[in-house]
Automatic annotation (TrEMBL):
Organism: Anoplophora glabripennis
Xref: InterPro entries: DNA/RNA_pol_sf, Rev_trsase/Diguanyl_cyclase, RNA-dir_DNA_polymerase
Taxonomic path: Eukaryota, Metazoa, Ecdysozoa, Arthropoda, Hexapoda
Biological processes annotated in GO: DNA biosynthetic process
Source superkingdom: Eukaryota
Name under which the protein is recorded: Retrovirus-related Pol polyprotein
Length: 185
């Protein structure tokens, strides 16, 4: 308990997570009630074209060793510790109608919205701003639920940032030879 007090830990039972750290806050979520980990003896499967052949077996072993960390369903990935404010160049509301779409895509949108509501990833709100949902078709992949924020982005004040030199970023890789990406949707 002294460590948690010293690090100003905050338990958030609504979001099912703990926030720890004074200068660098870190948030860790615990399994929620509907979490279904891959602990039923099933193996994680990988598409052979996603990983170089010489590393496929080792990656599969590692993933299967830690398969209890994975789930076949999305999990909650929100935080209550960070507040984000969008600053606009001018105060103008944006209220766009949904785009015309097929009945199949409408059903997919409704399903995705319901799933995100039930997971607590999104919540109902009343706002002056409304951007249309879109379903992005990707070859060989599942359709992806997105929101078209282009109109809002056009009014957003850009925050000046300085990107690091690519040579410095590449140095950070050191002697690594295997890379991956993480898509949080």
């Amino acid at each position: 308990v002294p460590f948690l007090t010293q690090e100003r830990a905050a338990l958030d039972f609504y979001m099912k997570c703990i926030h720890v750290g004074i200068t660098m806050r870190d948030t860790k979520y615990w399994k929620h009630d509907t979490f279904k980990a891959l602990t039923d003896g099933s193996e994680l499967t990988l598409a052979p074209n996603q990983i170089p052949a010489e590393r496929l077996e080792r990656v599969a072993q590692t993933l299967n060793e830690f398969k209890y960390l994975f789930t076949e369903q999305p999990t909650q990935c929100t935080t209550a510790t960070i507040r984000h404010k969008i600053v606009l160049r001018e105060h103008r509301t944006i209220h766009e109608r949904p785009y015309p779409t097929t009945p199949e895509k409408k059903k997919l949108i409704a399903t995705q919205v319901q799933e995100m509501l039930s997971l607590g990833v999104m919540k109902p709100c009343t706002s002056e701003y409304c951007s249309p949902p879109v379903i992005v078709e990707r070859e060989g992949k599942k359709p992806r639920f997105c929101i078209d924020y282009r109109s809002l982005n056009a009014l957003t004040v850009e925050e000046p940032t300085v990107l690091p030199k690519i040579s410095e970023t590449l140095k950070d890789f050191g002697t690594a030879t295997c890379f991956t990406t993480l898509d949080l949707r």
